[in-house]
Specification:
This protein is an alpha+beta fold and 160 residues long. Helices cover 28% and strands 26% of the residues. A hairpin with a 2-residue loop joins strand 2 and strand 3. It is globular. The two termini are 29 Å apart.
Length: 160
């Protein structure tokens, strides 16, 4: 992933309200390992159900605000994140929704999917079983993660 500045992040959101942008917490960018990310995702420490995802699409940063569902999946079952395709305990995957960009979103049109609760998919795909070739595995998983993330973001950007 290309590095992002605070200005890049703040100006990237396509479905945020002015109030959300005013309260937008910025993660520690000076600590970021950009070459180990397909997107930047973080949760809002002041609003437990809100999260943010920023990725590069067609050479520009695109940010989306996501909201987690109030409840979680039933404990004791397995679930899979729709971005990183990592199977994990259901309590670590949550349904997130995002308002569509523009007037559609202002009219209440949303899209939802199951994502890792901490939005840490780029870190999770880098945990490869020792018997696999980690660089090739990570590259393949990263490309697939990025494609699924971009597809979700493209759906957010649809106006109809």
């Amino acid at each position: 992933m290309q590095p992002l500045t605070e200005a890049d992040i703040r100006s990237s959101f396509v479905n945020a309200t002015p109030e959300e942008l005013a309260q937008l917490p910025i993660p520690g960018l000076h600590e970021m390992l950009w070459n180990e990310r397909e997107f930047l995702g973080w949760r809002d420490p002041q609003a437990a159900r809100r999260g943010y995802i920023v990725s590069w699409i067609d050479g520009r940063a695109v940010g989306i605000v996501v909201r987690s569902a109030g409840g979680s999946l039933r404990p004791g079952i397995a679930a899979m994140c729709s971005f990183c395709h990592s199977p994990q305990p259901a309590t670590q995957v949550r349904l997130f929704s995002a308002a569509r960009a523009g007037e559609a979103g202002r009219n209440g049109n949303t899209i939802g999917t199951y994502i890792c609760e901490d939005l840490g998919c780029p870190l999770l795909i880098r945990i490869a079983p020792p018997h696999l070739n980690p660089p090739a595995t990570i590259r393949t998983r990263g490309e697939a993660l990025l494609q699924r993330m971009q597809n979700f973001t493209a759906d957010i950007l649809k106006t109809a």
